[in-house]
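ok new one. same drill as before - C-alpha cells go in, u give me an amino acid for every spot. 203 of them this time. try not to just spam alanines like last time pls lmao
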C-alpha cells in the first residue's frame, strides 16, 4: 500500500511539475518567420507592430544621406533593446530578458553602411536581442535578426511574455496538446490505459 501510494504521489507530482512548466509559457506570444520583415539602406522607414494591435511600437528609420539605419521607440511604447553600454548585444538562447537589464530606446545598426551600436554580431549571420515595450504595461521579449553591412536588418521572428514576466531568449509557446502528452508520459502505460478507458466510457 505504501509503495502504491508513493508511486501515485510521485506521478501526480511529476504531472503537476510538467503542467506548471507548460503553463509557464502559456502567456508567451510568438510571431514566426511568416511575419519576417526587412529595413534596407536605400529604402524607406519600416514600422514594427510588436503585438499586432495596429499601432507600431518601434520604428526602423533609414537615413539614406548617411547610409544610416537605426531603430527607435514609436508612439510612446517605451521600446528599448537590451544593451551593454550603448551597444545592442547579440544574446544566446536562454538569456533572461527582464526589468533588471539595461535598455536603450535609440540604437544605430548601421552608419555609413558599417556596424555601429552592436556587440557580438556578425554581418549576414542571424542572432538574437532582447527588448521591452509597453502594451498595457511593460512586456519583455526577444527577436531574431540578421544585420548585414551595407544592406540592412531583417527581423525573422520574435516573441514576448504577455503577462509582463521575464522571458528567456528563444522561448516559444508550448504546442497544443503538449500538457496532455506530458501528463500521459508521466502516468506511464497504466495511466494511458485508464485515460483511454475514461475516454471510451464517454463515447
Amino acid at each position: 500500500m505504501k509503495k502504491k501510494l508513493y508511486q501515485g504521489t510521485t506521478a501526480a507530482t511529476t504531472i503537476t511539475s510538467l503542467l506548471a512548466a507548460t503553463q509557464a509559457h502559456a502567456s508567451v506570444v510568438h510571431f514566426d518567420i511568416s511575419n519576417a520583415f526587412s529595413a534596407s539602406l536605400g529604402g524607406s522607414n519600416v514600422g514594427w507592430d510588436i503585438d499586432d494591435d495596429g499601432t507600431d511600437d518601434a520604428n526602423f528609420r533609414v537615413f539614406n544621406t548617411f547610409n544610416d539605419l537605426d531603430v527607435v521607440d514609436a508612439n510612446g511604447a517605451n521600446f528599448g533593446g537590451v544593451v551593454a553600454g550603448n551597444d545592442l548585444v547579440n544574446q544566446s538562447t536562454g538569456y533572461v530578458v527582464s526589468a533588471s537589464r539595461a535598455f536603450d530606446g535609440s540604437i544605430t545598426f548601421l552608419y555609413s553602411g558599417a556596424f555601429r551600436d552592436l556587440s557580438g554580431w556578425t554581418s549576414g549571420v542571424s542572432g538574437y536581442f532582447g527588448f521591452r515595450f509597453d502594451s498595457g504595461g511593460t512586456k519583455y521579449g526577444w527577436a531574431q535578426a540578421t544585420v548585414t553591412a551595407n544592406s540592412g536588418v531583417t527581423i525573422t521572428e520574435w516573441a514576448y511574455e504577455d503577462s509582463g514576466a521575464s522571458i528567456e531568449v528563444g522561448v516559444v509557446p508550448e504546442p497544443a496538446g503538449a500538457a496532455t502528452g506530458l501528463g500521459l508520459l508521466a502516468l506511464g502505460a497504466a495511466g494511458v490505459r485508464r485515460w483511454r478507458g475514461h475516454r471510451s466510457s464517454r463515447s
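Helices lie at 2-24, 178-202. and btw The longest helix spans residues 178-202.
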